[in-house]
Amino acid sequence: MRVTIFGASGLLGKALIHEWRGDVVTGLSSGDADIRDGKRIEMLVREQTPDWIVLAAAYTDVDGCEKNPDLAFAVNRDGAANVAAAAEKAGARLLFLSSDYVFDGKKTEPYEPGDARNPQSVYGRSKAEAEIKLLNLLPNVCIVRTSWLFGVGGKCFPDTILKLAADRPSLDVVNDQRGCPTYAPDFAHAIIQLCGKNTEGIVHATNAGDCTWFEFAKEIIRGAGLHTTVYPVSSAQMARPAPRPAYSVLSPARLRTLGITMPSWQDALRRYLAERPRQATAQ
Ligand SMILES: NC(=O)c1ccc[n+]([C@@H]2O[C@H](COP(=O)([O-])OP(=O)(O)OC[C@H]3O[C@@H](n4cnc5c(N)ncnc54)[C@H](OP(=O)(O)O)[C@@H]3O)[C@@H](O)[C@H]2O)c1
What's the pTM value of the predicted model, to 2 decimals? Predict the structure, then answer.
């Protein structure tokens, strides 16, 4: 199988490149191909003749999207449509990465793939509109929604907590947002299997289990053997430009029917904490 990954220099892209075995994989960063440039994307995809395109490229700064909505829609919605148009012309399958932010976070039980979208932020709207465009352009597109991605390949919540904990005796962390932490290598494995199974439609994929950011931070501190005290605070006390969903637990039911399971987030965190110092030494 031939695979082209857009967004290969990002947190997920790096994990995909690292974990993918047995296929011919090409990774592209924004320097190789800006997905806003439809003609260049079409030419690159025609040259590479991929069986699958994995579209992990996105403008992912959620608060930045609030300040730069034009850029958010240009990259996340219209850029995605450029890639879908190129996939359609080249006869390639497309797997598009989407987000828990397409939901409003008002549910109290896990979101299923068919639940109504109701994004509350510019980032969420750009992803939701991309999903709708892609489903119209490429009816066999595979849309994979995930949440709370972490890994050694980039900026992420555990990395921030560990850096802050190194300098501070205590940290305030929000305790009224619940979601599913997702370790990039585990998510990459799920994506590789979804392509191998020729999956169509919307799938939710996260590590198993859920927690609040406060609970996640406490487990990070404990797992790293640190003694920083973590205090629970409300989202209102830590106001940010973009609203965050209060509840964004994604149901694994469809993933399971496809024969794919993911380890618990606690197990994933243990592996991240073991991998992180090795990565720091290698740099
Ligand atoms: N991180 C999360 O918690 C999370 C949660 C849910 C869903 N997702 C989705 O999962 C996917 C991967 O996220 P991530 O955390 O790996 O993202 P990331 O680390 O921010 O990486 C983003 C990637 O997109 C590329 N990119 C940005 N603008 C581009 C453009 N105009 N043209 C081409 N490439 C461009 C970047 O390339 P350069 O490095 O060259 O700029 C980088 O490779 C995204 O679709 C994201 O929306 C992420």
Answer: 0.97
